[in-house]
Specification:
By secondary structure, this protein is mostly helical. Helix content is 52%, strand content 8%. A two-stranded antiparallel sheet has the order 1-2. A two-stranded antiparallel sheet has the order 3-4. α2 packs across α3 and α3 runs antiparallel to α4. The two termini are 27 Å apart.
C-alpha cells in the first residue's frame, strides 16, 4: 500500500515477476508466473479501430496501436482504449473551438447587456484532459505506468518481514 496526496491508501501497481525486485519464495514466483502466463490466453488487441470512432479518434488509435501492443493489453481493453481515443478527439475539438472563439465569450443577457461568459469548451477540454490522463495510466501509456510494468518504478511494498521469515522457516 502507498499513501496518496490526500492521505488515503491505495495498492501499488503490480510488477511482472520477471522485473520484481526483492525476495519472494520459489513457490510465490511460480504462482505469479502462472498467473502472468494466463494473460497470453486473451485475444490480442485488434489493429483496426471501432467503426464508431471519429476520424481524429481513429487516427489516434492508429498512431498508438504499434506501441500499445507491446504492453500487456488485449481485446478486452479495446473499449477502454477506444474511450481514450474518443476523449482525445473531443479534447482536440474543444481546443479548436477555444482557438477560434477564445476562452471568454460575450453574450447578451435578458436585459440586452453584453456579459462575459466562459467558453463551454474550456470545461470540455479540462474534463477530457482528466479522462485522458486517467485512462493513459490504466493502459500503460504514461511514463510512470510503463516504468511500473517493467519494474523500474516504485518497488512493490514488501510484505511484513515477520510473515516472510515465518514462511521461510516452514519450507
Amino acid at each position: 500500500m502507498c499513501q496518496t496526496k490526500g492521505g488515503g491508501m491505495v495498492a501499488r501497481a503490480r510488477q511482472t515477476t520477471e522485473t520484481l525486485k526483492g525476495q519472494i519464495t520459489k513457490e510465490e514466483r511460480i504462482a505469479r508466473e502462472k498467473q502472468e502466463e494466463t494473460l497470453k490466453d486473451f485475444e490480442p488487441l485488434h489493429e483496426n479501430p471501432p467503426h464508431w470512432l471519429s476520424t481524429v479518434g481513429k487516427n489516434e488509435w492508429k498512431r498508438i496501436y504499434p506501441h500499445i501492443i507491446k504492453l500487456p493489453v488485449s481485446e478486452l481493453d479495446s473499449t477502454l482504449f477506444a474511450v481514450f481515443c474518443n476523449s482525445y478527439a473531443q479534447y482536440r475539438e474543444a481546443l479548436k473551438d477555444i482557438t477560434l472563439n477564445g476562452q471568454i465569450m460575450f453574450e447578451l443577457n435578458s436585459q440586452g447587456n453584453e456579459v462575459k461568459k466562459k467558453n463551454p469548451s474550456v470545461d470540455i477540454m479540462n474534463t477530457m484532459s482528466k479522462e485522458i490522463r486517467g485512462i493513459a495510466g490504466q493502459l500503460g501509456l504514461t511514463l510512470d505506468s510503463r516504468l511500473r510494468i517493467v519494474g523500474l518504478g516504485e518497488v512493490e511494498e514488501d510484505e511484513d518481514p515477520m510473515k516472510r521469515f515465518n514462511k521461510r522457516r516452514e519450507t
